[in-house]
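debug: dumping io for the single-chain case to check the tokenizer round-trip. Nothing else runs in this session.
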Amino acid sequence: MRIGECVRCGGGIGRRGTELCHRCRAADREAARRNPCPNCGRVLILQPDTGRCVTCSRTCVDCGALVRRSTDTRCLACRRRHATAVAKRVCPRCGRMGLIRANTGWCGSCSRPGPEPKPPRPCGQCDRQTRRLSNGLCSRCWQAHPDRARNQADRLAATITEAPWWLGPFADYASERMAIGRASQLVTAMGALLTAGDPTHPQALLERARTPGRSAGPLARTLEDFFVEHQLAFGLDQPARLAAGRRQRRVDATPEALRPTVALFCDHMITSRERARQAGTQPRSDSTIESNLAIIRDLAVFLTTTRAKFDWATVQPDDIDAFLNDRPTNRRRRLTATRQFFRWARKQRVVLVDPTTALTSQTERGFKGTTLTIGEQRRLFRRWTNNNPHIHPHEAAVGLLALLHALSVSELRRLQAVDINPASRELHLTGRPHPVPLDPASFAAVEACLTHRQHLRTANPHLLVTKITRPRLTPASPAYMTHVLDPAGVTIKRLRSTRLVDLLHSLDPKLVAEALGMNANGLLNYLADDVDTGRLPTPNL
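debug: decoded output
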């Protein structure tokens, strides 16, 4: 029964209380169920389990890609991949999994055999049978062949339009001073620099080979030694750059209120050093300048934190005296640096009065360090003379030479192979007027160092050759000498001090000074006033 007309489509309405017909009401209910699919964007009825439309809800079980057909569980690529994997069988010829060909009954590789492998041939150096030879040598022998780096340099020169003449000599230079593999790596790195298209003259290559950071890098160090030796370029200023960085860090660590004056004092010391070099006098070393800056930095921190003073003009003598008394053992050195700073500051009118004028060092002379007991010396002697393969030859040689012959750090660093006389078993040191006769234990340790040095195949003339100094001609670094005796738990200074104290308590100081090439007045500092109980004889109980 028709009651009225639909307000939307004009159709008949058979129910009271509504303005829409049955079809329009059903269309509204269907539209309310539709939402945009987050995958394809179409407005459809979304599946409750996936939140996407029906088409986007069918995904591959292997890769997750869309599957168009409702009967499939994998996409086309995964269906083909799965069919191939199922069809693979074990090849009866090679034993590997593969698709078996119907005509041969083998896999594809076995069905299309390549040329017959070459018969094994002997290596020209070690006679080892191998199928792969390079220049008549096996891989192991060719890797260690001295001409490897040179041949690599020749091949590199053939690919460069204007190859430098020194490329081959550089390869020979590197091969003589380091391992063949490392030399080949340097030639490869050099080839990358030459083919980069930038300026290729030696000085430009040396600057481009430098790596950022503390170390210039193995290529830059080797190039520097080679170019300087052949007078092709100037050396790198890497030590100067590192020293400048250390100075700047000390200036930056100064409190901000007192920092500008310290920066000017740093520039003054650099300028004074250059004037001293031009005048031919003794200039300040980098370590001296850095030590002075460190002391002034500590003084500035002390003034700002302890004395609440933020202006150099307000510093009083009692402030300086309190700073010096903070570390009585370093009073003399700290007073010297502080006095230099305030003398300069007064000339620059930063301060009106020098607060360090009336101050004195007031330090007692004498040896303040520690020595080893007899038991500790015997323990170290046994450690360095029992031929333990786990102990580095450098440790035994350095320890015995410092403990038995009182060699200093500088003497050990400067010691060269030509300074050792195997016939007379003596050392010829630069600072000592007489040769140093070696005992059997010390000479055996030195021989072990010489053998270790020969195995390194280095041109470095020094006895102590490290990983860093192997391709160079420089001595071992002070940092290496500081830690060379760390496994033994002792320092070179302590060993030397022990020996000097023993000598001065048993011999005439003048004779010891004459034998060691030292100042007799300086040796008197090792005559301690206290008694070392470890050296006293044990009473019979």
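debug: round-trip ok. DSSP finds 23 helices and eleven strands in the chain.
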